[in-house]
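ok so for the tutorial part 2 we go from a plain amino acid sequence to predicted structure tokens. step 1 is just haveing the sequence, like this:
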Amino acid sequence: MGLIEVYFGSIASIITLIGLAQGYARELGRSMIIIVAIFLLLYVEDRLNPILTSAWQMVFPAKDLSAQQLFLSNFYLVAFVVTIFAGYAGRVITFSGQQWPMPQGTILSLLVGAINGYLISGSLWYYQDVYGYPLSSLGWISPELSPIAVELVRYLPQNIMPSATPWVIPIAILLLMRVRG
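step 2 — the prediction. this is what the tokens look like for a chain of 181 residues:
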């Protein structure tokens, strides 16, 4: 078992390094995919949870709330990870223009990669937090949060912008940037 902030900090660091290696022109396209995934999951979560919960109760009529929370958490985690994987493995929207020279291009790539790392690892952590850390029952993470983790939960992407509506703004900005070239 380990501290949750170490797990998700490691994920964010790896995504940041991928962003540095790929360059900001490709990472901005991935940013758009990540933000759209966050928007869609926030948009459907309130509508989909009653359907998923009733389906779970039809299959497993016993009132095991922890197993139901694990099911809901895993549903959103898998949906998010599949979307992100498709964004990183497939063709990505590449922003046109010339790459900036070093050090500006490197710093911008690092910054965009760090933002993507924050959005991805923060979203994964968010679904653990919302559903009561069900993966702690599997022994993967410590169920007790450190004081640092308690404070960091306040700054997860979906806790900063809990409604789906504000997520449209960065999507629109990125689309405009892409269209303008």
